[in-house]
Amino acid sequence: MKRYSLITFSFLLGILSASATVPGELQGTVKDAQTGEPIAGAIVKAKDVFTSTDSNGSFFLKLKAGADSVSFRSIGYESLNLAAGTDMSEVRLNQKATKLNDVIVEAPDIYARGDTLVFNVARYANAKDNAIIDVIKRLPGIKVKEDGTIEYQGKPISKFYLDGNDFIGGQYGLATNNISHKDVKSVEIMENHQPVKALEGIEFPEEAGINLKLKEDARSRWVGVSQVATGIQPFLYDGSLFGMRMARKVQNMFTLKADNTGWNPANEIRDHNFEEMFSWEYMSSLWPEYIKAGHISAPLSEKRTRDNLSWLANAITAWKAGDTSLRLKLNYMGDRLDYISGVTTDYFSSNIPTFIQTNSQRTMCHDISLQFNSETNKRGYYLKDRLTLSGILDNSTSDITGSYDILQSVGRKRFRLENDLKLAKRNEKKLFTLTSRNSFSRSPDRLLVSGEEQAFQSIGTTDLRSTTETRFGKLTRFWKYYLTAGIDLNYHRINSSLTGFRGFDNTGIHGTFLSNLYATPQSDYERNGWRMSFRIPVKWLHYEAAGRHDYINVSPRYSIRRQLTSKSELSGTVCYGLGSPQPFLNIDTPILSDYRNLLIAQNPDRYTHDFGTSLSYRYRNPIKSMFFNLSAGYSHRLSSIMINQKFIDDFIISTYADKLSHNKTWNLNGGMSKGLGHSKMVVGIDLNSSSSSASSMRNGEVIAYRQISAGLKPYFKGSILRWLSANYDAEYGFSNLRIEEKTNTSHSFHQNLFITISPEDIIHLTAGAEHFLTRFPEGNTSNLILLDASAVWRVNNRIRLSLTATNLLNKRSYEYVTYGTLSRSEHVFSIRQRSVLTSLQYRF
Questions:
Q1: Which backbone phi and psi does 135 adopt, to 5 degrees?
Q2: pLDDT at 213 over 90
């Protein structure tokens, strides 16, 4: 009896021992034992399985039977082995001291850590750099657009972090334009970045995330910059104050700025958030902006054209504890602009007179918003709630001469309240997500046209919308199966009134109700470098707008991605869409969008058919600092409705006709960049081209046309010698419009060169020139040369004095050509006059 009891006891003890050595799932965070900072890219390994920590130092590992220990390793740290039953919610690694005799080991320019590329800022920076954005602009593989958008390998980044914290949201211009490059240790590009931990290993975005890793002495204290500047011709001023504090639990950032030197405040507070709340088929706006007057722009740097008076105030406070964070954000932007522009439009028809316009315009915009965001982001659980309250007041007045001599006044108001909720929960076999957005908006707009006659268009819209979507997923080793379903409800009320305009006077209230019930089955496959996805969204749409309308939409899509090597990948998509008419086509009330354009919508109840395919290739070699991307696409739209423009002298009435139309478009885009001279220089070239063939109606006649455009942009940036650096970029553009047998072609060329000489590390002298060349279809050309110069004296690490002169030749206008659907327009745009500005900057 004792023998059997001993056997039974030994058997149970063995089971308990085995259970103790296989806890199943492990998750936790790896941190630096000295600083407490998370360690990204650390290797976590157990029996037959391993993983690496993400940018937040988090890891998840599923142990196999017989695993009795877990090891942790990272470059620069001592290895650590822990028993499988140990608490690993927070693992701390000690820094490893390595003694080398008479050998200095420098950090590499760029290196790969899993899917993360790490750029050593110290190797890419030079003495004349001021903010971190100056360094980012020279990183190979990265492009920064004029509005501040950061792109990697041709795609905008999806998320921006400071030390692994996204407390500023998508408004990363506040950080990149103000944080000193000396406070940043490295710029980390996280390829195929998935910001939601619960979706890691399930969804693989093509877009990358970016993380600025701060230096130790820039953490847990206030850092920032203040600047005052003044100048002449006309009187100029620029004053700003920026501060930031990145503590472990509380993060703060604030910005105050006033300026009239051409700076655009929208570029700093623009929200670049790329987060997809809903499935691909979600449309953020179902209704158009009816009054379009007052919008103006030119293909020229805003610093050259903005005659402005601008203000900005921003404050962000965030709290973070573990995986949970809270954020409160307040924005205010004021922007007054003065423009003088001219346009001459040729419609290639003897029956339509050439249109001439000179516009002297002033705009005034006030934009204020308040946002509260709470988020819990764990491996198995994600919850986000965001509440946004915003208001916009946008007015403009225009004194227009030419074909018409009139005064035009536009007033727009926007009030919006929006709440977003997203929940994701997963385990190793199942996924559940719930997403909702509820919004209310009110927009009373007006347009007043005063000339020989006086016309007044008012249009007030009230919009209430509620969208709820849920997704269920079953996860296996190689296959994943999902079913997404949702309902989208929208009540939209339009109060429209038009008086004093050519017999089109009308007054009416239009209440519409839209419902969209949709479902999307989807299957994904991933194995051995292959990722494939196939989904079939199906919608039932019900419109109660000028009657009842019901539609069924179907839009299957197949995508594939192949990891060719560790450095390259190839991806492609094929899609088809059967789409219903837009809901605004049911509102057939005449609406005046500006002083010469009237819209009369019409719904023929016809479907559109869309077919598209794309193919892209991306290559990156961090060791050689070589980056390359190329994409091509084709789309074909078959529609049963066509826009018909009716010309009455210089006045245009746009309607819709029941006519079959085809639109075929090809496009090719790509880019290459290469780092040279141990990251001191970067050279590259970007290209784009497109070809479109379609038909449009004018005065009831169907006219076929074809448009071709192409662009080539080579560039060079960086330091040639220790004391000499240069930035050069050029852009050649080609445009061709063919209407039936008539062809019209224009060429443009733009280049700029800025050379900086640094006789001492504290003194920088810069001279620059911009050259614009436009060759018009008739063969005549327009040349514009702009010269600039600046001198910078860095008194010490904190104080910077500068003297800047722009447009030294005092050129006042820029000429260029654009093509419309069946027209060509020659533009003249005013440029800011010569100016001299002196500034004092202090960093703390």
A1: -80, -45
A2: yes
